[in-house]
Amino acid sequence: MSNYFDSVAESWDNNPAKIERATATAQQIKQLRLASYESVIDFGAGTGLLGVQLRDLFEHVHLADASNNMLEIAHHKITQAQFTNVHTHFVESLTDIPGSHSAIVTLMALHHIHNVGEFFAAAYQKLQAQGMLVIADLYAEDGSFHKHNPDFDGHNGFDLDELCQKAKQAGFTITKAEPFYEIRQESGDGIELVYPLFLLAVMK
What we know:
Layout: H1 2-12, H2 16-31, E1 39-43, E2 60-65, H3 68-81, E3 86-90, E4 101-107, H4 116-126, E5 127-138, H5 160-169, E6 173-186, E7 192-203
């Protein structure tokens, strides 16, 4: 999967829709009340479209991803803008990131993770007491969202109630679980398809 993201990294930030949804997600995160604002991990950060927008909210922002090309672009942006509190990390999983953190956020990344239960368990371990995990992702869809990527082997979105149960099983308390955004994109035959996103915020 990282090969696909490596191949599209250069043009990633040229898509206004990707920037818009990252901004909408950042606005949602800024409205949440966290116990600590010491550090946040943006997991599956890509070029940092979400995480960079959190640099004024947290003392330290850690952009974590498994695509070197995405992280190179993120690092270039950080260097150019002289953001001293934003850091990049090449990781395969959450367990590769050292330390414990105030929050973990992830935008459109969870559906690429095969074992969601393991992800929740890892997030729980990486969070400080009363730390928050915030997931923005697709509701269950018919598989058309990733038709442009023949190598996609993740989830076709999620049933939010089932995801909440997995979070509870890992020890989390549900803080927020609701729709907040819609992605609109054309199908191959020119029909506009709408894919709603949910925001799930859970506390350790």
